[in-house]
Amino acid sequence: MSAFHWDAAAVRAVVPLRPDGTPRSVADHERAYAAAVWSCLAEPGDAVAGALIDALGPDDALREVIAGCRGTLAADAAGIPPDELRAGVRRWQPRLEAESIAFALHLAVSAGVHLVTPDDDCWPAALDDLGPHAPVALWVRGDPAVLTRLDPAIALVGARAATGYGEHIAEEFAADLAGRGVAVVSGAAYGIDGAAHRAALAAGGITVALLAGGVDRPYPAGHTDLLRRIAASGAVLGEVPCGSAPTRWRFLQRNRLIAALGDATVVIEAGWRSGSLNTAGHAATLGRPLGAVPGPVTSGSSAGCHRLLREFDARCVTTSDEAAELLGLDAAHGSEREEREDDRTGERTRVSDALSARAWRTVDDVARRSGMATAQVRAHLGMMALEGVAANEGARWRRVVAGAGD
Amino acid sequence: MSAFHWDAAAVRAVVPLRPDGTPRSVADHERAYAAAVWSCLAEPGDAVAGALIDALGPDDALREVIAGCRGTLAADAAGIPPDELRAGVRRWQPRLEAESIAFALHLAVSAGVHLVTPDDDCWPAALDDLGPHAPVALWVRGDPAVLTRLDPAIALVGARAATGYGEHIAEEFAADLAGRGVAVVSGAAYGIDGAAHRAALAAGGITVALLAGGVDRPYPAGHTDLLRRIAASGAVLGEVPCGSAPTRWRFLQRNRLIAALGDATVVIEAGWRSGSLNTAGHAATLGRPLGAVPGPVTSGSSAGCHRLLREFDARCVTTSDEAAELLGLDAAHGSEREEREDDRTGERTRVSDALSARAWRTVDDVARRSGMATAQVRAHLGMMALEGVAANEGARWRRVVAGAGD
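Structure tokens for the assembled complex are given below, as produced in the milestone run.
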């Protein structure tokens, strides 16, 4: 193991100012640097690291690990069972190398990537709902101030192997919600994610992409330009340091960040075993509203959505208004399918049924045909005449306008 | 009002034997005849008629009405509030005409239509769940013994304005369920209903059509041949007497019979205000399981199904196996989408992620890349070597088979 030392110069380069533009104190620098180091040491979602950092702060937690590597680990640190803490140190130790950490920081500086930690005002409080699984820091490509504009935010996710149908829905939802000031959070993958980001950008809204690897490494490569555009007006976020590869584990952990940043998650299209179901699972675990867009049952690309409806009690979402409802927002478009008074039940219907549009009928005849008392029929006919839906010539009646049954 | 009298000759012609082939007693005849008369007097779902018949039997209930028409109504009959009973008599009186009732019976005799009442062994007990809204009798075109073969039965209903998608699903569900001995109940309308009946017939199964009008009047006319085929192996049922027109009110009431005869109801395709939602509402009121098949959110023909999923807590049904599940039947096709062990989470994934398929890596390297302790990594590598998914040359390892992420 290389000797590890505090690299004050490196951290000053990465985090010269707080994201809000104010200078950092020396103590701030130390904590930010320690958070950056932690993002190199622990894999995303490492709850032992999270608990240790929660209890001691990132700087003292890191000193504890360095001590542990030298065999002087305090047995009762942060109330974490000593076995777990020792196992943690064994996990983190292989990565506690000054050179590789310095290299990750160097990559961040080169790429203009910002470090944001829970000490910063722009830290998204929504991430704290992850408890010990919250990230220790975020690496941000783009303006970190965007992180203050994620309320409300919606996670729109789905299959890479999307159909035209799914991409159409993703575009429609993202454009409409982004246009209403809802930030669109997704994972920058091909298919649904890409369609959602693109439509949010086109609508002039805020969109944020969470990457599984380092934010300096556009992934997928085919979305290099899309990610550049997202960073220009929104942000590209990751919790692993620059230069890190997007592994399958990190994809799964990345999904928890998408679910946590969204005030609600909507899965637009997903195969039976799509990774989007993992995002949905995180949203449900966090108690965030979860929606799924149905599709043809003959389409494998909607099978995962139907599974969410069947097995995970997801809300069926068919319009962007219904997606907005998950966020507690009112419908933007009014109630398009406003209920008309349903006159298809009850006595009125029976009287109307008993009238003919062509033949004139007596009240007695209408009473017999409708199975109602004569006096009742007469009362309804009077109302219907006022409304212009029935007409009489003397004692004989006919229907003027008839609604269609189904 | 014409004088009303018991028409013993007419009733003997309609119901010469019980549906099971045994002769009827004189008392039986009287009750069957009275039930037939009641089906002429009261509109479907008339709860006052239902309560009166429940309390007194159809024959004494009818005598009570005849007395009521003469102004000698017993004020406390069957515990029904006198006002409601008097209102009932006023409703029924216009239809208490010997000629028109005799004509309805004559039509039934001519068309070979059977009368089935709750006194008959083949009466479907499921209808009794409707309480005072249960029909007083069923008019049956076809073999009444079919009514004993409706357990289990599924109601498959949907829009007349069905799409190819909806008709395809209706055919698939009906064929599969009918082939498994489930009776398919529907309403003989164009679109979904017709597709379900046809597929059930093609599968050699039992199918039953509920009509809103008289069973001697094929409705819609374009389904005259289909209704003939349904009657030949199954049954065409109605609660209004022969010659009656299918009014909108009767369609809505007919829907309660479909819902009651089905052990579960599945709406396959339905517009936002489809009459199928009325059937679904009856199923829910009866406590019968209710399913809805999702479709594209861009299809108006699925809007009603999505409404059922959103507003009525219907179960999302995507396969005939899932429809069978609503009936408490096991899946016929095994678990097609059987869960494979999900190895995408946990340490194994992280070790696999850290291996390369091309480059050989040391255990220390794999430990660093996976963020795990060396000893743990070694244990996993040992297991993976046994399973053939990792291979080593001395101290260096590589991945042999990699699963695809999503």
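Residues 334-345, 402-406 of chain A have pLDDT under 50 and may be disordered. Residues 159 and 295 of chain A are 13 Å apart (CA to CA). Further analysis is deferred to the final report.
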